[in-house]
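[retry 2/3] Glucosyl transferase: previous attempt timed out, resubmitting with same input.
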Amino acid sequence: MKDGKALTGMQNIDNVNVYFDADGKQVKGDTRHVNGSTYHFEKDSGQLTRSAFASDKNGNWYYLGQDGKALIGKQVIDNIPLYFYPNGVQAKDAFVVLDGNSYYFQKDTGQLVRDRFWSDDDGNWYYSDKEGKLLTGEQTIDGFDMYFYPDGVQAKGEIVTIGIEPYYFDKDSGHKVINTDITINGKTYHAEANGLLIETEQKLPQRPLVSGGHFQEDSSGNWYYYTATGEKLKGWQNVDGVTLYFDEEGRQAKDGERIIDGSHYYFSHYSGAVKTNYWHTWSIEIRRQEPFAKTYYEYYGSDGRRYYGWHRVGDQLYYFDHTGRVENGLTIFKGQNYLFDNHGKLVKDAFYIQSLRVFVGTLNTSYRSNKFGQVLTGEHHINGDDYYFSNSGSPVTDIVEKGGKDYYYFEGKLLKNYLGPLLKRQELDYDAYYSGIVGTDKDGVLLTGVSTANNGKLYYFENNRNIPKMFTVTTPTWKTIDGKLYHLEPSINRTYKHGGRSYTATVREEVDIIDHGVRTKTDKIKRIIGDDFSNLYYLDENNDFYIGHLLPENTDLTKIEETVIQSDNKFYAFNRTSSLSETSPLTVSKTLVYNKKAYLIDDKGVATETKLTNRFEHDDAWNWYYFDNEGKAVTGLHSIDNVTLYFDKEGKQAKGRLVEIDGQTHYFDRDSGAMWTNRTLELNGIRYVIDQNGYVTMNKPGQFIQDRDGDWAYIKENGQLATGLQIINHQKYYFDPTGKQAKGKRLLLDGKYYFFDNDTGAMFVNKFHETGDYFSKKYTYFGEDGSQIFGWATIEGKRVYFKEDGYQVRNDRHKIGDFDYFFKKDGSMLSNDIDGNYKYYYADKDGHLQFGWVTHNNETYYISPPWGAENRTYLKTINEKTYLFGPKGRLLRNTATDTSTSWNGFCISDENGVVKTGVIRLEDNRLYYFNPEIYMTTPFSGEWAEFDGKLYHFEMPISVSPYSKGSPITTNTTLEKDGKTYIIDENGVATEKKD
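[retry 2/3] Glucosyl transferase: success.
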């Protein structure tokens, strides 16, 4: 008591910590929670327990620390690992999950079990490793393979299916059984060397011989057998040494499959003998549906029953799925994709290329499996490299955005510290196509803006349709980037951009021969990929890039040090160490002249104007300039160090050329730039006289003359050689500083481009100029004053556009300012109409491309952003609804048709254009099933399937359109399935018949 009141809570009395409940009673031999911690008070004195184990009144144990607080979490006390729950109670005879791992603490002591087997009270066995973690899954302990379920219980005396493969583990030791025969639940198996269980082959039972009778056919073509005594045979029979089957009516089973007592058998067409050790093979071809061709294999064993699961046929191991078909590709088992090669062998922990014959050729798709044979999807780390696989399992070749950053994957592999071609895959093109140059950093993130690539050089990666691609130029170029001035070096050895799209040539070293799903030869695929700049890239088996070129015919291959590849009777040379020929690095650490001003370029590529005085400096084309004592670039005639020099109005020094100054022609030395006087000049085979004033003349005024090289010049009336722009007989011509006439050339004069006719040399005025071959024609246009047109223009009443390079946009889409436009084949802008090339677009009255749903001429269209509509019949999912579209994106309502979209075939749309699914009756009055994946179910016969909780049976496939097949649903009949009788109604729904 204190001040007449009972004490409560934690108290210190005579230096002893004690605790009183709210009613004033002292706590003894029990625990209390105070301010988030648990404390214990001794049984006799009630004193706070410290540095000791103690139990509460419920028998729970705790360990109290020096401060009296109960310890929690993992603890080591007297070298014994223990665990205490968050309330301080010690874990005993308990499984505890920590950081995703399970641990077991013993019943009496609470000590963590480590590095040994142990069992619980129910006789289940477990194994804890050295850290105390319960092992799960496949494990090898002391050299023996074992299996532990996800809860840690060891598998003993039972079959365990790991992935898709069954194994048996001994009932006593739990060791995987290998290399022996074993009987399990009445079935005999052979455990292979790796433990895989194979059901032992059974034989047809020996039945009593029946002979002396005769066969008889009824009016419906059914056959019966009557013994010598007139008895009609039923069931399994041995007739004259041949095993036959007769149903309950005595009808003989012939020509195909029958289900007898729940097992599938196959009977001969003519004799009706049951087939044994027999491959049944059939193929289905469905145009406009992929795969274009599919071959199925089933096998009937020695006892005539169809195989399921794992079996050996000869020396080859096969897996037969739930339908009895050999798997030699992707198969779904319990919701997971598994990968089989063309031998039917399960592919484990490896890449594999699956080849399928499809409508457009052969589709080669690679996959990667884990150690169970399951197809990988998503992100994985394999052999030190990062990979990314699509939801279908195919390796990604694309730009992938993660966490706000873009990464480049090729064939699934994340390319790090990479500088090279961006190769992408198109929807219907199964090879890679060049799409520019990209770079990545050490983490595989795409380089953007001005960045240093893996070769130590600076490049500019410009955002191009949301992908930062290297900005490349063919001539030295100044460019302002983010408000800073940079200089780009021209590409090395870059050729002109040729016509046509990029191509892929395939090198096949061997050919596949497949028999019953067994591949007897391998197929190695190597690819040669060309870009749009005549460069070639070679991808080896590891998808490493080699860069090279096509060798001329009759090349002596023995003298080629590079890797030589033959494809299509052509030879290519590749060198892995070659540098990319179309890269344009930024200039660094240099001084250059630009627009008559001097710029100092630092090591980051940033150019800053600088002042030069009384010195020469050159630009990026090696034209020389002179800066006076005020730092200005001089123009005109100047005497520098007592030498007469000339600088044009741009400040460029004249060297090795004729220059007209104040109506007189002068010549300046090609090396020093000094003006010549009192000399004769031999230039291109023409002799000129230069007087003491430096005037250049000759004696053929008012005439065109031709030099020995076939070039033309013009002599003015004063006898001097014409240079620059001249008007002769009302036509404009141009002569270079040496007097040579320009023909068939586009020239930059006073900041504008002009073109001069190839034959006459006359300047083009109001005229198109066409370049390129038949497949890659390009057009430029020169206007009223002869200068080249850039940007928007109206020509002959048509609105047209010329890009920055001067070429007219034709039959292509182009972004101008904030809007996208499409220009038709003649170059005119699309407006208030739909048009396109490979993709189709709708443009409003202003020519702006519109995407999404549009209405045109009372028809509904969908223009897919950003690439446009397709010119074929196809399906597209929009806001979780799948629609049927025709050419140019027109919505097809109430339409039944084939589609050309991958993995889709015949389909039907409703009044809103939405594709129907489920059971549908077609015009032939038969029912078919269209699954939720929006394509007709793969044709098959004699198969049962359950959809939406209802059971259906399918008949033989028939044609439902010129290009597609489907299996009608059986109606209005009675069939047997797994020993049970089912009544099938008019809607195809099968219901078990009840007695």
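[retry 2/3] Glucosyl transferase: The chain has a mean pLDDT of 85.
[retry 2/3] clearing retry counter.
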